[in-house]
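Query structure, 358 tokens:
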């Protein structure tokens, strides 16, 4: 580049900074890669590899369906060739590419990035060249975003590098390349390369990020592509409440029952189920059974028993208890006579009664 051209480029950059009024310090949101974020390498036509390259994430090709060189290349994730997963990732890549290309405001930079230190923001270049070291300073913000809008090509010289200071994260660095990117031999590159056409990584180049090409091929030669690290804040964000939100109940919500719900049956039944008689069954006889005879049985004889002997009792000899001369016999005979008279009277009375009844 001539001295005149360099001066012109610098003047243009200053003019853009003055017009935009914000420069590169404007805060940017990350570019959403969608499912393309699951891939170390994504290509439109093919992926070719030479040597023991290593991909920390997946490899995908769509609409192409070839990826020669694996093995000896190693894919730690999955390989998707012209399938639905690869197609979705390619669609998400297109969305991300358009997002990165359309970010404003931006700062215009000269083509050579080597020897430069940049702060977070959006930068636009015609064709980008990296010789030596590019330093990205996040200014203490691990979520800082760097977007490079490159109209045509991105090329790095051998053994060039991108380095970070003050907590910058490769996860939030995006290189939107209008045609193709070539990463030189032994280069240590950082960020997500979103190329319209193709990406070539020369021998021994490493990338902490992703090589994503929309329409062309990705060519590898003994390369290592590691997933980009997304740094997190080291402490709780200052915007986060330092304690429990003031609207949070300070104790158990007052609407919560203070004990066992009062609607619980008061009733585990308080006694034997209510259907059980509370006393002696009501069918229990209340007195002496009504069938009990109320008086003397009606079959009781109403007169002198009919079985009364019909003859005088058999006489039994009684001992003579008196003295000599038979004086003790007279009372006995007198008693017998009395009995006989009484018996006769009774028989006569019975005779008369039967006669009168007949």
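Result returned for the query:
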């Amino acid at each position: 580049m001539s001295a005149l051209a360099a001066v012109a480029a610098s003047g243009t950059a200053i003019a853009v900074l003055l017009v935009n009024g914000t420069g590169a310090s404007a805060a940017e949101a990350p570019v959403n890669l969608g499912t393309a974020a699951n891939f170390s390498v994504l290509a439109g036509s093919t992926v070719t590899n030479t040597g023991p390259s290593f991909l920390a994430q997946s490899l995908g090709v769509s609409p192409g369906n070839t990826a020669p060189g694996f093995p000896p290349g190693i894919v730690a994730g999955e390989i998707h060739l012209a399938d639905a997963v690869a197609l979705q990732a390619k669609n998400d890549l297109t969305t991300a590419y358009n997002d990165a290309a359309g970010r404003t405001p931006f700062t215009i930079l000269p083509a050579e990035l080597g020897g430069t230190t940049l702060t977070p923001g959006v930068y636009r270049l015609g064709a980008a060249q990296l010789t030596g070291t590019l330093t990205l300073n996040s200014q203490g913000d691990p979520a800082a975003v760097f977007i490079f809008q490159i109209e045509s090509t991105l090329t790095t010289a051998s053994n060039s590098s991108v380095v970070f200071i003050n907590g910058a994260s490769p996860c939030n660095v995006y290189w939107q390349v209008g045609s193709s990117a070539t990463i030189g031999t032994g280069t240590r590159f950082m960020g997500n390369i979103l190329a319209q056409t193709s990406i070539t990584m020369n021998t021994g180049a490493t990338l902490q990020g992703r090589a994503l090409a929309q329409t062309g091929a990705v060519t590898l030669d003994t390369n290592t592509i590691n997933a980009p690290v997304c740094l997190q804040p080291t402490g709780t964000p200052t915007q986060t409440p330092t304690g429990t939100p003031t609207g949070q109940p300070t104790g158990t919500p007052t609407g919560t029952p203070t004990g066992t719900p009062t609607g619980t049956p008061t009733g585990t039944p308080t006694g034997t189920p209510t259907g059980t008689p509370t006393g002696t069954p009501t069918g229990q006889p209340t007195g002496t059974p009504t069938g009990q005879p109320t008086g003397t049985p009606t079959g009781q004889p109403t007169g002198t028993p009919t079985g009364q002997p019909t003859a005088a009792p058999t006489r039994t000899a009684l001992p003579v208890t008196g003295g000599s001369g038979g004086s003790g016999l007279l009372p006995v005979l007198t008693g017998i006579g009395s009995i006989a008279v009484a018996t006769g009277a009774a028989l006569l009375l019975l005779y008369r009664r039967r006669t009168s009844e007949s």
